[in-house]
Amino acid sequence: MAHLSRVIVLIDMDCFYCQVEEKLDPTMAGKPIAVVQYNPWRGGGIIAVNYPARDKGVTRHMRGDEAKRKCPNIVLARVPQVRGKADISKYREAGNKVAEVLQTFTNLLERASVDEAYLDITEAVEKRLNNESHNIDVDKLINTFVVGYADTKEFIRLANNNELFENNVKLAVGGLITEEIRAAVLEKTGYKCSAGVAHNKILAKLVCGLHKPNKQTILPHDSVSILYESLPVTKIKSLGGKFGKTLSEELNITFMSQLAHFSEKQLAQKFDDKTGRWLYNIARGIDNEPVTLRLISKSIGCCKQFPGRTALTATRDVKHWTSELASELSERLAKDQEENNRKGKQIVISFAQNDIHSSRTIPLNSYEQSKIAECALAVIDKFCQRSDGSYSINFLGMSVGNFQEINQKSSITKFFLNMSKKQKISDEKNIQDTESITAIPQKCSEAKEISALEEEPNNQTEDDASDLSIYSRTTEEMEMDSDDLIYYEDICPNSVSSEPIHCFTISSQSSEEMESSRRSSMQSFFAKYFGDKTNETQEEDQQGQTVTVRGPQPEEVSIYI
What we know:
Elements: E1 8-13, H1 16-24, E2 33-36, E3 46-49, H2 51-54, H3 64-70, E4 75-78, E5 81-82, E6 85-86, H4 89-102, E7 109-113, E8 116-120, H5 122-131, E9 144-146, H6 152-161, H7 166-189, E10 193-198, H8 201-208, E11 216-218, H9 224-228, H10 242-251, H11 256-259, H12 264-270, H13 273-282, E12 300-305, H14 315-340, E13 342-353, E14 356-363, H15 369-384, E15 393-405, H16 411-435, H17 440-454, H18 462-467, E16 488-491, E17 500-503, H19 511-519, H20 525-530, E18 534-540, E19 546-552
Parallel strand pairs: 2-4, 9-11, 10-11
Antiparallel strand pairs: 1-8, 1-10, 2-3, 5-6, 7-8, 12-15, 13-14, 13-15, 16-17, 18-19
Helix pairs in contact: 4-7, 5-7, 6-7, 12-13, 14-15, 16-17
């Protein structure tokens, strides 16, 4: 069975932010640690807690003062503040070092977040099975647990002595390799991690957290039903939000084991063929989503929340925070371009008014801070500014995506290519002159449009810039699944609220979709697509809270906050 042939691992760094702080300050070793945001109110908001602190009752989202009362000797490490918001660059850099180690074991590495990564080690497992005997040293799996088995010895004994459990041998060898991976991460970076080993990404993710810290769990396919007995439906990826609730209500189920009672036909009738097939398979522990090579983020973004009385109302405040976010984004984009030789082509401007969240996606033509801020302000003014010039903004965010590799051709080569294109257009124009005078205006117009779209953004003249402004480009919806968003919690300064803000990673659209938009972009997207019509829908976030989304059609996109 093909779905049992793969060996997938999820590596999850244990209390990663706390580990990073402990490594930077060795005097913290062995002590209860919590990482708090920069907001001084009641000691700041806790975003990470190590296990000694958890043993004392300290949890995430507590305030620092409350943590001190529960654990007087706790060390509160504060996240640095830059431009009025949290700077998590040291955690990103630490995550990059871990990824470098993981990459030495397989080329199929997919970074899910700063502290998580999926690895497909199937090839390494098969290579080891071909070169060595099936006898597995149990002593090398002392930190390994197996779902549905009394101990690791029983699991390996049955796997070796029964051909029906051949795929379990692969998982056992995968467990050995995973122990080696975790040991290498610890040796080379100083950071401990836990892991889940299974035949697919969803199952590896589910079991990774069963035994922590610094341990790993294997899930054989014959034990999926045991895991599912008490596993809520909402714990499965893609079932944590509105669809998961709808599924539970429609089928009157709570646990994944109950979903297995429905046939594929029944599920397809309730939903659709594709969804029914996926639900039928996942209810049996089957999922074929590949581990996609991704060492770098699909998008780069930053954002800030302004809850309650801190809401932005004045123009100067909106401009200030738009500029601050644009400045951070510009720096990170420049660094990304240097390191990864790519450039983002789309920017998502997200905003919330009275907790109604919306976003707009527009082309990105420049990494300059002023240009990014200008684009963002244009969108914000269009959709957030009241008739009296005031605002009521609770959230601002910017995220750049749809990255494309930068063309390595030299500027001299580009010059001659452009000259060649212009000469070709000129020759075509001259031919048209001899045939029909009336064809000239149309041909010139087409040539001008092609030139404007293909020209490098940084080489625009003032005249060209007007043609490429956001007012003459179409916007596009960006498909966003709450499972694709990666949240970094952040507390706003000078706020009496303990609500976190969220920085996120968003999957970008394909280059084909972007190119299609660019080719049809010479009409005003605000006039053509937005107009004055609005719609209002209700979405549910992953916590089950209803978020009403109001905005122009058809570019409406929900942001889960």
